[in-house]
Amino acid sequence: MSLHPCDLCGETRTIEVPHCREYTGGQPIDICARCGFVYVRERRSAREIAETWSKELYGSGYTARWPAVKARHAYVAEFADASIGLAGKALCDIGAGEGQFLALVRATPYEARVFGIEPSEANGRLLAGLAIEHFTGTIEEYVATRQGGDPCFDVVTILWTLENCQSLRAMLATAHDILAGGRHVVVATGSRILVPYKKPLHYYLGKNPADTHAFRFSANTLRGALAVSGFETVEMNRFIDSDYLCAIGRWADRSKEIPWPGDDPEGVADFFARWHEDTRRFYVHT
Length: 286
Ligand SMILES: [Zn+2]
Fold this sequence. Notes:
The chain has one domain (2-282): Rossmann fold (3-Layer(aba) Sandwich). Helix 5 links the parallel strand 7 (113-118) and strand 8 (134-136). By secondary structure, the protein is an alpha/beta fold. The strands form 3 sheets. Strands 8-7-6-9-10-13-12 form a 7-stranded mixed sheet, sandwiched between helices. The chain has a 4-stranded antiparallel sheet with strand order 2-3-4-11, with helices on one face. A two-stranded antiparallel sheet has the order 1-5. The protein has helices spanning 20-24, 46-57, 67-84, 100-106, 121-129, 139-145, 168-178, 201-204, 219-227, 265-282, and strands at residues 2-3, 14-16, 30-32, 38-39, 42-43, 90-94, 113-118, 134-136, 153-159, 179-189, 215-216, 231-236, 245-251. It contains 10 helices and 13 strands. Zinc ion binds next to loops. Residues 6, 8-9, 11, 32, 34-35, 37 line the site of zinc ion.
């Protein structure tokens, strides 16, 4: 385990998410005392977290073939295509999973040229079965194997994945490195906060190892994660009445500072306190 400062602003002071340990089996989740970002401070290595996902959490019944997962992939494909256009673009999905999103955007009407990076070997076999060009391993391992002349991508997608990695900075830095200048990263997450609750708190804060879900984003802090990684947010979906938060960042020169607002830390703590109160009052806590 290593102890991490705020991934967005570097602050080490935090406020603990009120009541979180009642839902996580005693594991803390923190709110940055400066920018309001919600994150898990103690994390294992990127490899260990990826292995927990591959061997334990994916093995426990999750599949991209669930209707809800198909629906969110379709939503992102439509949103990205409408915003930046996908036809003919070289698109890389970081955390490609079972390849369902890539198979979708490869087909008509999107017709992107697709590539996947995926740590799970079982999923790698599924990608091969779909004839999707891919790399089996973590993003760090992928970057280490790249040659200087390797092609850059037009679009990098990180879908329901950024919240589950060990270092969002490393993941977004990889996206920046493999994108051609001025091109786009698409980030989507269901772990959105400062919006109407979509479910009781015990469905949102579970007992899985806390570092398998190290980040929870508001629109402001997702914008911040992109900004500190060299991406200017150019599109944001109507997250307030959707289950998803989806942002599109445009590659910018890293030497340029991109402003981002952050959240009020006390307000974020209050949001969780009220969510806890509603959960306690209206739902049986199982
Ligand atoms: Zn911060």
